[in-house]
Each structure stands twice: as structure tokens, then as C-alpha cells.
């Protein structure tokens, strides 16, 4: 199969590299000359474990190449993927589809012979229909079918997610695309990965419903964590206790500082807008968005409370800034709101992140950076674990204690056990794990008045 991948961003690059690894002939296209030049030199513009080797191996084997020449790549292709960005539109939270529409018109002008056009970008329901119209309007002679094939890749684990998917969703309205898509995913298909064919609108909705549900699941356990802190309980045990029920499932029940990243915040917002447009409001998702937004700043206040309620002139050390480990991505990271809350309260913030500091410098104002976790701990009033990078999981707590100005560890990812931290002489504040038994009666009744 000859595949053209439009957009050499996160999704395009990972998908293109993986398709070439399946043996397909893949050309990744991007408008950024600089990005393409770097990729040709083997430089990967994003941090994603395993991607550099995958790109290098397949480029050397001649199966993966990079270009800015969309026309030639599309003319030659059997399948054209659209993997351009769909950021939140400024002002209303809708997905901005302008890049998708430009790509559709460009494809229409360049296409030759029967070609399957696949939307991989996350796009609202009905976008496939719009892409089809643009292609027909731009070039009535184009022999194309438009397919929706959403991605479910997690940053930091994207290659594994691509090669070992829970399912592959293909939404189509024209059966001519079916054997082509089976061929594209042949190695996975042969490995029994469920390849689910459905209508195009349904496929578009599956992507948003999946991300909306996962965001809701995280937000649910975060609220249970708050209740555990007040009522006396351990959220991790609650999560395990409910997650062992197969109807609920154990994954995505880690309480933390709120979800961030390039997908959940943007996709939940877009889903809310779509619900409003179709007069089918998604109140659970609306609430999820609101609760998660509030939570991020609340985490800053939690740190302030851990420092006795006043952080003016005090230095707070932050470990981890990216929205999750194994990425350099700072988009909608909880650290942004946490840093702002601390700076607003008059604190000095020192931070360290293994991969995210370069991007953090473009997003965060007024933060100082340390060389490693211990450098950040030195002289700080409190050390806050924000992102659970592996290197923060086994800190020398005695050393941390000796470096801190005041011995407090706030663990927003529940990486440590209270006993080990307290043994090192540090006060320990985590998420949803209270050992204080509340003074309230278990059931508040009017009779008590
Ligand atoms: C997500 C989806 O998982 C993926 O299928 C989709 O295609 C893109 O969006 P990603 O944003 O890369 O992937 O990361 P993910 O691992 O899902 O984490 C998202 C956020 O939720 C992070 O901020 C993470 O810290 C948080 N999270 C995740 C929790 O707080 N608790 C959890 O249990 C899981």
C-alpha cells in the first residue's frame, strides 16, 4: 500500500512510522519546511519513547520518507490520511477544522485514480460529510471515498497503543473502502485486533465518547478522593475495590491533580459544544470539564495549606511539569494552574522536569529551574510531586529531608507510602488518603438538632 500522511505532528508521525513498520510505503507531508528538514536528518521533533528508532529503521529501509510536496505524495497514494491539528477554536471551544478543510481541498486537487481519504484527526460528528463535500466541490472528477479512523494513542505509550490496540474503529459509507482499510491494518487484523466497521458519523462519535468517558472516570475518582480526605478513607483502596468489578474496570482510576494534555481538555470541550448544537446536552461532560478546571487551582491551594496557609516569599519546589510522564508536552498541564496559584500567593517557584523544561519555559512565566529533584528541594519550604516520572518514584527521602528548609512532601500522584515518608522525618500530604477519623456522625439527621 502507498500511504500519504498529511501532518507530521504527533499523530501523523507515530501513525506514519508504525504503518511503514507494517511494510507499507509511507510519505509524511508537512507544511513546515523546518520540521521536514529535521525529520530527513533523523531528528524527531517530539519526545516519544521508541519513535526515533522506529523512524530511523524504516527511513533507512526506504519505506518512510518526508516531504513538503503534498501534490506528488497524494497523486501517488492509495490511501491518504489527514492527521492535522484540530485545536480548540478561540472563543467558543469548538474544534477548529480549518486545517482539515484545507487538507481536503489540497487532496482533491492532487488526487489521481481511486483513493481512500481517511480522517485520523479528532473531528466532530459530521466532519467526514463536510470533507466529502469539499472534495466533490473542488474536483468533481475525483474518485475518492472518505473514511473516519480515529486514533486512541496515549502520549508516552503511543507506539505500543498503535501496535497493540484494544480495537480499530473504521467508519465508512462506501464499501469500496473496506478491503483497503483491511489491507492497511493487515498485521494487526491478523493478530486478532478487533477491526470494527461502522457508519462514519458513529466512528466520529466513538472517539469523543471514549475520551469523554475516560475524562469523566478520572474526574469521578478525583471527587471520591476529596470525599476520602474529608470522610477518612483511602482512595487507592476504593479505586481497587471498585475497579475489580469488570463492569467498572481498573484503568483510569488514579486520583491526581486533574487531567491535562492535548486531548481530554480539548475533546471534552468540543463534545459539550456538539451536544449543545444538536440540542442533546451532555451534562455529565459539562460538569466534568468544570470540576476538572476547578481542581487544578485547588491543587495550588492544597500546597499553600500544606505550607501553613502562607507562602509569601517562600520557595516551593515542583517535581514534574508535563501533563504526564514520558512526554515533553505541557499542553493544559495541571502544573500551569498550580504554578499560577502559587505565584499569585507570592511564592517563588523552582521546578525540574526530565523532558518538559524547554516547553515549560514557553508557557510558564516567573519559574526558576533546577538541575534535578535534589537541586529543586534545596532550601524549599515544601517539595511537590506534580508529575509521576519514574525518577521521582525512588527519591532518597533522607537526602530530601536534609535539603528542604521545612520538611514537607506534597505528593499529588500518590507515588509514596505515608510510613516511608514519615520515617524520613517529612510531613506527608497526598491525594485522597486521610488517616484522620472525622468527628461527624456517620448520618446527619434532623433529630440531632
Ligand atoms: C488520551 C487518551 O488516553 C487517548 O486514547 C487519546 O487518543 C488521546 O488522549 P493522553 O492525553 O496521551 O491520551 O494521555 P492519558 O494517559 O490518557 O492521560 C491524560 C491525562 O489524564 C493526564 O493528565 C493523566 O495524568 C491523567 N490521568 C490519567 C489521571 O489523572 N488518572 C488516570 O487514572 C489516568
How much strand content do the residues show? 5-15%
**End-to-end span in angstroms?**
75 Å
> Can you tell me the number of structural domains?
2
What sort of overall outline do the alpha carbons produce when their principal axes are compared? globular
For the biggest β-sheet, the strand order reads 3-2-1-4-5-6
Helix/strand/pairing class, anyone?
A: alpha/beta
**Which small compounds were modeled alongside the protein?**
uridine-5'-diphosphate-xylopyranose
In CATH, the topology of the largest domain is named Rossmann fold
- What's the assembly state of these chains? single chain
Mean pLDDT: 95
Largest sheet: 6 strands, parallel
| Helix content range | 40-55%
**CATH class identity of the largest domain:** Alpha Beta
Rg from alpha-carbon coordinates = 24 Å
Question: What would CATH call the homologous superfamily of the largest domain?
Answer: NAD(P)-binding Rossmann-like Domain
What's the architecture of the largest domain, going by CATH?
A: 3-Layer(aba) Sandwich
Question: What report would you give on this structure?
Answer:
This protein has a six-stranded parallel sheet, with helices on both faces. The termini are far apart. It is an alpha/beta fold. It is built from 18 helices and 14 strands. It has helices at 10-21, 33-40, 51-60, 70-76, 98-110, 127-138, 158-163, 177-184, 186-190, 200-231, 235-243, 264-277, 283-306, 334-344, 357-363, 373-377, 397-403, 418-423; strands at residues 2-6, 25-29, 64-67, 79-82, 115-119, 144-148, 168-171, 195-198, 315-319, 348-352, 367-369, 382-385, 408-411, 427-429. Helix 5 (98-110) packs parallel to helix 6, helix 10 packs across helix 11 and helix 10 packs parallel to helix 13. The longest helix has 32 residues, at 200-231. The chain folds into two domains: 2-198, Rossmann fold, CATH 3.40.50.720; 215-429, Rossmann fold (3-Layer(aba) Sandwich), CATH 3.40.50. Uridine-5'-diphosphate-xylopyranose (UDX) binds at residues 151-155, 211, 214, 218, 252-254, 256, 259-264, 323-324. Pfam families: UDPG_MGDP_dh, UDPG_MGDP_dh_C, UDPG_MGDP_dh_N. It is an enzyme of class 1 (oxidoreductase).
Amino acid at each position: 500500500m502507498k500511504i500519504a500522511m498529511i501532518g507530521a505532528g504527533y499523530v501523523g508521525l507515530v501513525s506514519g512510522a508504525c504503518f511503514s513498520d507494517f511494510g507499507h510505503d509511507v510519505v509524511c507531508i508537512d507544511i513546515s519546511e523546518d520540521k521536514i528538514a529535521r525529520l530527513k536528518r533523523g531528528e524527531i521533533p517530539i519526545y516519544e519513547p521508541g519513535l526515533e528508532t522506529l523512524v530511523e529503521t524504516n527511513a533507512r529501509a526506504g519505506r518512510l520518507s518526508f516531504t513538503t510536496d503534498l501534490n506528488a505524495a497524494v497523486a501517488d497514494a492509495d490511501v491518504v490520511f489527514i492527521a492535522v491539528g484540530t485545536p480548540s477554536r478561540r472563543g467558543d471551544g469548538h474544534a477548529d477544522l480549518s486545517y482539515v478543510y484545507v487538507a481536503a481541498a489540497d487532496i482533491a486537487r492532487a488526487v489521481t485514480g481511486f483513493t481512500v481519504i481517511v480522517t485520523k484527526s479528532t473531528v466532530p460528528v459530521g466532519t467526514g460529510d463536510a470533507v466529502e463535500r469539499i472534495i466533490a466541490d473542488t474536483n468533481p472528477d475525483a474518485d475518492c471515498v472518505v473514511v473516519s479512523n480515529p486514533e486512541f494513542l496515549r502520549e508516552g505509550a503511543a507506539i505500543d497503543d498503535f501496535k497493540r490496540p484494544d480495537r480499530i474503529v473504521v467508519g465508512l459509507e462506501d464499501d469500496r473502502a473496506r478491503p483497503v482499510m483491511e489491507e492497511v491494518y493487515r498485521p494487526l487484523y491478523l493478530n486478532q485486533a478487533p477491526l470494527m466497521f461502522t457508519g462514519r458519523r458513529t466512528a466520529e462519535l466513538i472517539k469523543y465518547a471514549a475520551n469523554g468517558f475516560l475524562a469523566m472516570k478520572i474526574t469521578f475518582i478525583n471527587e471520591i478522593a476529596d470525599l476520602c480526605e474529608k470522610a477518612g478513607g483511602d482512595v487507592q483502596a476504593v479505586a481497587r475495590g471498585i475497579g475489580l468489578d469488570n463492569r467498572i474496570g481498573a484503568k483510569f482510576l488514579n486520583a491526581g491533580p486533574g487531567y491535562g494534555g492535548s486531548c481530554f481538555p480539548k475533546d471534552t470541550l468540543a463534545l459539550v459544544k456538539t451536544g449543545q448544537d444538536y440540542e442533546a446536552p451532555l451534562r455529565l461532560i459539562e460538569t466534568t470539564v468544570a470540576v476538572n478546571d476547578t481542581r487544578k487551582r485547588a491543587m495550588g491551594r492544597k500546597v499553600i495549606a500544606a505550607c501553613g496557609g502562607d507562602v509569601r516569599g517562600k520557595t516551593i519546589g515542583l517535581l514534574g511539569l508535563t501533563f504526564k510522564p514520558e512526554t515533553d508536552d505541557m499542553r493544559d498541564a495541571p502544573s500551569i494552574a498550580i504554578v499560577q496559584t502559587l505565584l499569585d500567593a507570592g511564592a517563588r517557584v523552582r521546578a525540574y522536569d526530565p523532558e518538559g523544561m524547554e516547553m515549560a519555559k514557553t508557557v510558564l512565566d516567573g519559574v526558576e529551574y533546577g538541575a534535578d529533584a535534589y537541586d529543586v528541594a534545596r532550601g524549599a519550604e515544601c517539595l511537590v510531586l506534580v508529575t509521576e516520572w519514574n525518577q521521582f518514584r525512588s527519591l532518597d527521602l533522607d537526602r530530601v529531608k536534609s535539603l528542604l528548609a521545612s520538611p514537607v512532601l506534597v505528593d499529588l500522584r500518590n507515588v509514596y507510602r505515608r510510613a516511608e515518608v514519615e520515617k524520613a522525618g517529612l510531613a506527608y500530604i497526598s491525594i485522597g488518603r486521610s488517616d484522620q477519623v472525622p468527628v461527624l456522625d456517620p448520618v446527619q439527621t434532623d433529630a440531632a438538632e
